[in-house]
Amino acid sequence: MSATSTMEVSSAYEGYQADFTRLQEGLNAASTPPSLKLLRQKAMERFSRLGFPTTRMEDWRFTNVAPIANRPYALGALAEVTADEIARFLIPELPGALLVFVNGRFSASLSDTDALPSGVEVQSLSGALATGLDTVEPYLVRLESEGEQPFSSLNTAFLQDGAVIRVGDGVVLRDPVHVLFVSTAPGEAVVTHPRVLLLAGDNSQVSVIESYAGLRDAGYFTNAVTQIDAGAGSVVNHCKILRESLQSYHMAGVHARLARSAVVTSNSITLGGALVRNDIGVVLDGEGAECTLNGLYLAGWKQHIDNHTTIDHASPHCASHELYKGILDGDGKAVFNGKIIVRLDAQKTDAKQSNKALLLSERAQVNTKPQLEIFADDVKCTHGATVGQLDEDALFYLRARGLGREEARRILIQAFATDVLNRIQHKPIQVELGRTLLDRLPTISAGETT
Predict the structure, then answer these.
(1) Quick check: pTM over 0.70?
(2) DSSP 273
(3) What pLDDT tens digit does each residue of the chain (450 aa) get?
């Protein structure tokens, strides 16, 4: 590392440390529970020890976070945003509660949590912390005890706000909860550290849409963490949508733990961001649990999108299904690393993984690495990865029926993508993401940079 680069990283660390000190000793410090201060302190110490990941690390060798590590960021603050400004990021005709966060801070005026059924709690994390740490502390502490994850530790060190969704035992929440994080980037590089806790009780059902968007095309940094705790027999549908600025950076971790017979489906749709890393970790911690991970990403211009997934079969008779698809154009780059772990006692495991990438430019690149670590002997595990271009025979077939070349390309690309979109549970989300996809396809399908 050069002397200049070392000084820049040191300056960034100093900025984080100064902001951390202000957070711990600021105006609201007196009302902050001592246990929360201690949790933050330990997380900051861990982040300082781990540092930013480098390309010398196996899990990061294709993803360089220097644009984040070499730049200081100011902590985001709640800003004035109107309902009209966020309207384009809402999902028409989607019922249910809405929580809106601006620069990582809860906006009560833009949110709507009325008419929730009995047994369902939807609130801001700051509100939950203000009323006591007991209900959320076990989940926050557990994440910090699992693995060496520098960005998750950084998130915990600056833990202030986010969403808490709690569904009681046996409660069925039919309408989804939409959690929208909007960044305004008001003239300076800002960072936010949102946390989402999705806690589903035994035999409950819940759907959550978690979306991130930028009001302006600016270089802000989002460092998000989502925790999903699925009780025995619960059914959880989670959909994460990224429509970030094409100059922004997004580091995120989704951590899910499934109890006996729980069923969790998580869809990851990435349509924005200059540098994006989605780390998804699922632990099948009870017999008969089942998870499905679907993903779709579009990378044009000079975007870099990295999806790392780990599914840990820690119990017998569990199943996992995974399908990720990517569309790359221009100088877009992508990484897919999918790991399936089958523990010694996890007999009768059924795990399937598929990753497909479509390259529309000679300059586009994708690195894909499926991994299987199997320690049991009575299992069914398959994985497959394909990287290719549009099928010329299919193009010829469409053109022979009167379509122009670019229209034929667009139809094939759209069909490739909608295979994933159609797996999302709620029709209004499928329709909205289909529209967003169509907005980007004119440049993508022409083989141009975005």
Answers:
(1) yes
(2) -
(3) 444 344 445 567 788 898 999 999 876 777 788 888 999 999 999 999 999 999 999 999 999 999 999 888 989 888 889 999 999 999 999 999 999 999 999 999 999 998 899 999 999 999 998 887 788 988 988 887 777 799 999 999 999 999 999 999 999 999 999 999 999 976 678 999 999 999 999 999 999 999 999 998 888 999 999 999 999 999 999 999 999 999 999 999 999 999 999 999 999 999 999 999 999 999 999 999 999 999 999 999 899 999 999 999 999 999 999 999 999 999 999 999 999 999 999 999 999 999 999 999 999 999 999 999 999 999 999 999 999 999 999 999 999 999 998 899 989 999 999 999 999 999 999 999 999 988 876 555 444 433
Q: In the beta sheet, which residues pair with residue 179?
A: 99, 210
Asked if 346 contacts 312 with a C-beta cutoff of 8 angstroms, the reply is: no
**47 and 150 in contact (C-beta within 8 Å)?**
yes
Judged by DSSP in three states, 226 sits in strand
Q: CA 140, CA 138: separation in Å to the nearest integer?
A: 6
The partner residues of 320 in beta bridges, in order of sequence, read 291, 351
What single-letter amino acid sits at 420?
V
Cα–Cα distance measured from residue 143 to residue 198, given in angstroms and rounded to the nearest whole number: 13
The domain ranges of the chain are: 3-286
**Which residue has tokens 């007991």?**
134
Q: How many residues does the chain have?
A: 450
Task: Write down the H helix ranges in 226-315.
Answer: none
First-last CA distance in the chain: 32
As a whole number of angstroms, the distance between CA 308 and CA 303 comes to: 16
Are the C-beta atoms of 328 and 299 separated by less than 8 Å?
A: yes
